[in-house]
Prior knowledge:
single chain; mainly beta; 18-stranded antiparallel barrel; two-stranded antiparallel sheet; disordered N terminus; disordered C terminus
Amino acid sequence: MKRLPIFIFFLPFILALLPQKGNAQFTIGAEFRIRGEFRDGYQSLRDSSKTPYVTIPGRVRLGFNYKNEKIDTRFSLYDAWVFGQNYTSSDTITKNTVNVFEAWFQYSFTRSLGLKIGRMTVTYDNQRIMGLSNWSMWGATHDMFLAQFGQNQKRWWGNIGLAVNNIAPATAYLNSYDMRNNYKYLGLLYLNCKLFDESLTLTFLDVMDAFQKYSVTTFVTTTTFDTLYIRNQNDSIIGTTLLPLVKKTSSTENFPNTLYARNTLGASAGLDFKKWSFFINGFYQFGNIRDGRSLSSYFYNLQATFRPWEQVTLMVGWDQLSGNNFSDTNNLKTTVHGFSTLYGSRHIGYGYMDLFNNIVKDNLSPGLNDLYGRASFSFRNNMSLELTYRWFSIPFRFLSVTNPGKGQLPYIPVKTSLGSEIDLMYVYKPIPNLELNAAYCFFLPTSTMEILNKIETGKSKFAQYAYIMITYKPNLFHSDNRRPPVKEHL
Length: 490
């Protein structure tokens, strides 16, 4: 990775010494996060061939913010690593992960119209479709243009976003884009409206992302023959034979001018009373996936929350992501029905063991149902305890078979239930900006879950996951300590 110019690190401090006009604010914030994890079935079930292990990932972030009446800008660096990945006594860092996390500025033409440009986080509503992915040490950002409009006091506001991605060094946009897991083009529209003294919130979201068609690699086998002469002990030719020479070659064809786009369109409604609150959202996904097949899928989420006392919160919810009926082989040749949650924060939505991250992202998945209940308790304003129960299932009674043999069906009949997950989490904040987060989670799988994880029925081991995470977010500098600090995005 190229070394950053040294003046970049001193620029924020130079700006801090300049005269600040009006309500201009300059702040420096940081984040230190270390998480020790015990993984024994995290992300996928295990059998006797896999061993539980401990890992310690970490990250640091350093963010600079400047804001006045017209300009709002942010620049932040981060380093994400796993303990032990670098040598202890070497001036050569073998795995340097230092990078720019955010780098954007926003100019406000008026109080209700602005333009934000650069690398930024994009999050809406309950983060099911667009989220921070903050559980990951890397997080998620997008390089895009974002027009912002809205009324004073945020009674209604919205965004129009556009991202056009290319490779480095820059080439023509119609050239091949080699980042297979990244979109080539993305557009979004988001609207938010608050009514009845903000007790009712209505939102609308439309996201279009386009991908280049998959490359096609063709393998060609050619056979030539070489003549071998057979000689006797006197070196006289007494016969000949032919030796086959097999040569394999491959060629890859790219399709930079063939793009497949999918559109995710939906809305949400949130109703908030003194003790009760309700939330519902739903999305329909259509267009094409990257292999050209048509897409038709849906997702919806229902959630109800009850606060009988200030210290107690009870919640129940239901998520359903449509999936593919793998027994309908004729329909699957042209149309898929799995829903992708795009760029949402999956850790907060589908269990802390992250067993379903791939399913909820993949349009070729069997789908997922998630019925959950949660009880949260607060103590002394700096301590909380959360208990969550989830029951997972799939919409259809079939799972796909990878590389079926001759005469074998490409699917297998199963039961719909996948199993249950129990998550217990404890949070303690001894001082402002310092948080201790600890959790213990376990999963009780069914035979269908074992098949989904490619484990022989009855051979999976007890799946559990535990972690202890420490996060510290100090405010290192503020240009005017009399004003409240600018909200950090770390």
